[in-house]
Write a structure and sequence with these properties.
The complex is a heterodimer of chains A (113) and B (118). Chain A has 113 residues and is mainly beta. Chain A has no helices and 12 strands. Chain B has 118 residues and is mainly β.
Chain lengths: 113, 118
């Protein structure tokens, strides 16, 4: 079945460092891809998305490009801030699915001042 | 943005007791709510989909008599873990989708409930 594999955390970086969180997926069709973020004490919220190959999703300085050839959707940010400390989830949904989202296991990111 | 309130955030109970978790959409009506669970270092797994006024649809391998879901109104869904056992200890999270919204984008999550069964 469809699945999402992401980098196991925790990841600890210094402020202003470059961030990459790897995500790869397995899907039979042409899924949409997402990154969700969960800040401490809050619910998951959509960070960015891409719906077809070569699309780049971006938000709050984060970017991820839908790479069909490598089945990847790595999350990147050029200069992280303390406020980016959170858990990040990579996810996919099949186009013909009304509701089902498949999540990765989440990566906890901690940024040191 | 839209807010989903999930309560309680943490619960500890004795083996054999039942635990109810509530999921409320505070500023929108949710035709559909979803329940997930997550074991440590594993993915969020969809347990069931509940539609207001109808029976929940459970994913394969999820016991519907064990995990009772009620979606009695457009703003409230509840998950009851019946006769809880230590292996039910997990992180449970709900999400809600408004009347209009595509999968993934218009999906709002609660902050989760950590259940520990002694």
């Amino acid at each position: 079945g469809d699945s999402v594999t992401q980098m196991e955390g925790p990841v600890t970086l210094s402020e202003e460092a470059f961030l990459t969180i790897n995500c790869t997926y397995t899907a039979t069709g042409y899924p949409s891809l997402f990154w969700y973020v969960q800040y401490p004490g809050e619910g998951l919220q959509l960070l960015l998305k891409a719906t077809k190959a070569d699309d780049k999703g971006s938000n709050k300085g984060f970017e991820a490009t839908y790479r069909k050839e490598t089945t990847s959707f790595h999350l990147e940010k050029g200069s992280v801030q303390v406020s980016d400390s959170a858990v990040y989830f990579c996810a996919l949904s099949e186009r013909n699915s009304a509701s089902k989202i498949i999540f990765g296991s989440g990566t906890r990111l901690s940024i040191r001042p | 943005g839209a807010v989903v309130s999930q309560h309680p955030s943490r619960v500890i109970c004795k083996s054999g007791t039942s635990v109810k978790i509530e999921c409320r959409s505070l500023d929108f009506q949710a035709t559909t709510m979803f329940w997930y669970r997550q074991f440590p270092k594993q993915s969020l797994m969809l347990m069931a989909t509940s539609n207001e006024g109808s029976k929940a649809t459970y994913e394969q391998g999820v016991e519907k008599d064990k995990f009772l879901i009620n979606h009695a109104s457009l703003t409230l869904s509840t998950l009851t873990v019946t006769s809880a056992h230590p292996e039910d200890s997990s992180f449970y999270i709900c999400s809600a989708r408004p009347f209009s919204g595509t999968v993934g984008e218009k999906l709002f999550f609660g902050s989760g409930t950590q259940l520990s069964v002694l």
